[in-house]
Amino acid sequence: QVQLVESGGGLVQAGGSLRLSCAASGRTFSSYAMGWFRQAPGKEREFVAAISWSGGNTYYADSVKGRFTISRDNAKNAVYLQMNSLKLEDTAVYYCAAGSGWPGPQIYEYDYWGQGTQVTVST
Predict the structure, then answer these.
(1) pLDDT of 101 above 80
(2) Phi and psi of 30, rounded to 5°?
(3) pLDDT (tens digit, 9 = 90+) per residue, 89-98?
(4) Whose CA is closest to 116, among 40, 29, 32?
(5) Residues 32-88: pLDDT tens digits?
(6) Residue 98 three-state SS
(7) In the structure, how many helices (H) and strands (E) does the chain have?
């Protein structure tokens, strides 16, 4: 079992930055691939970024590539999402997820989910 709690969301102006954190419980955190997804009002949940258990491999949605950076600290049981150059369309609830397989972009590849943290980008 892995429990995930996101934090760091908030209101930010377009062009600004935020850093999301996801704290995980469980001694096996380092064996899980981790992902960030987001869901905007009226839209389906979509993939944002993922990182392998070792942190050696990262993957990004085209819409955030070059602006967002995913990282993890296995000693702290945490994964992060640094978001720069935020745009209005980045407004969404952001979810952290853990999966026992390869860090892919599909929702079904992840077994555990956090409750989400709201990110709102304003003009």
Answers:
(1) yes
(2) -65, -10
(3) 999 999 999 9
(4) 40
(5) 999 999 999 999 999 999 999 999 999 999 999 999 999 999 999 999 999 999 999
(6) strand
(7) 0, 11
The pair phi, psi for residue 43, each rounded to 5°, is -120, 165
Q: Looking at beta carbons, which pairs linking 49-52 to residues 24 or more positions away fall under 8 Å? A: 49/81, 50/103, 50/104, 50/105, 51/79, 51/103, 52/102, 52/103
Distances 25 to 1, 22, 75, 106, 109 between C-alpha atoms, Å: 8, 10, 12, 23, 19
**pLDDT for the residue numbered 35:** 98
Mean pLDDT of the chain: 96
Pairing of strands 4-7, 117-122: unpaired
Burial of 108 (0-12, 13-18, 19+ CB in 10 A): exposed
| Cβ atoms of residues 108 and 121 within 8 Å | no
Rounded distance, CA 106 to CA 47, Å?
Answer: 7
| Token pair of 68 as six digits | 């967002």
